[in-house]
Amino acid sequence: MIDSLAKRKILIHLVVSITALIIVILILVSWLAAYTNHGETVTVPNIKGMKYAELKEFLGNKNLDVKISDSSMFVLDKGPGIVIEQDPRPNEQVKEGRTIYVSITRTVPPQVKMPNLIDVSQRQAEAILFSYGLRLGSMIYKPDLAKGAILEMSCNGKSLQPGQSIAKGSRIDLVLGDGVGVTDVAVPNLLNLSLEEAVFVLKGSALNVGEVFYPPGKLDSINFFVVEQTPMPGDSVFIKQGESVSLKVVYQNKTEKRYEY
């Protein structure tokens, strides 16, 4: 009888202990779930291209935090403090309060040496600027016989010299020659000259050959002679160096001594 009562008490104590343990475990699991926001997730937004200064408020409204993991990168076509990478990636599911780590562009761009663009063409200048991490700004033309050649370089209105330090990503303004000089020259008389002679005279006067009007079906330039020119020659007719003179030519058949228009 005594043994039976003892066994019963032990069994009751065992049941009570197991029940209490289960209750404690359930309470602990519930507390942990609440503490870790179990089952509460948010979708990570795409923040690439956004300014870091805007992220605190933007992500705070989504119960997410943000920290910078890298700020040493420079991207030519992006300003300072722009997000270029993020972890976790967009559209991933994370728990509320998760920290998003971002890589942003440098606030202060690195310095580069200004390349020498003097006397190079516009196309070459663009390629060289790009290779140095610089941008092409405005292009200003001024009278100079070197048409399309770079004459001066500047940034924000200040003249630049080759080798001078400048912030990467800066816009470089260029002054180019327009192919026309500042000196006035008298229009030479080209009438009755062969086309080859006329071209030679124009080059000697620092002038260019403009449009040439040929007679139809004739290709032999040796037998072309000038019969009209624009502008016409004259003692008081002057144009700028580098400007053009248009010509009308006829074909002279030397054998038959006749002109064809």
Quick overview:
The protein has 261 residues and is of the alpha+beta class. Helices cover 23% and strands 36% of the residues. The protein contains 4 helices and 17 strands.
Helix vs. strand class? alpha+beta
In terms of DSSP E residues, the strand content is 35-45%
Cα distance spanning the termini: 145 Å
Number of beta-strand segments? 17
Q: Average the pLDDT over all residues and give the rounded result.
A: 85
Silhouette: rod-shaped
Which stretches are low in confidence, meaning pLDDT under 50 for 5 or more residues running?
Answer: none
Largest sheet: 4 strands, mixed
Give, in spatial order, the strands making up the sheet with the most strands: 7-11-8-9
The CATH class of the largest domain is identified as: Alpha Beta
Rg value: 41 Å
Give the helix tally. Answer: 4
Under CATH, the topology of the largest domain can be stated as: Trypsin Inhibitor V, Chain A
Order of helices and strands: HEHEEEEEHEEEEEEHEEEEE
In CATH, the architecture of the largest domain is: 2-Layer Sandwich
Q: Write down the domain tally.
A: 4
What does this 3D model show about the protein?
The model has no long low-confidence stretch (mean pLDDT 85). It is built from 4 helices and 17 strands. The protein has helices at residues 2-35, 55-60, 122-131, 195-204; strands at residues 41-43, 65-73, 83-87, 93-95, 99-105, 111-113, 135-147, 150-155, 158-159, 165-167, 171-177, 184-186, 208-213, 224-230, 238-240, 244-253, 258-260. The longest helix is centred in the N-terminal third of the chain and has 34 residues, at 2-35. Helices cover 23% and strands 36% of the residues. The chain has 4 domains: 1-35; 41-105, Trypsin Inhibitor V, Chain A (2-Layer Sandwich), CATH 3.30.10; 111-177, Trypsin Inhibitor V, Chain A, CATH 3.30.10.20; 184-260, Trypsin Inhibitor V, Chain A. The N and C termini lie far apart (145 Å). With 261 residues, the protein is α+β, with helices and mostly antiparallel strands.
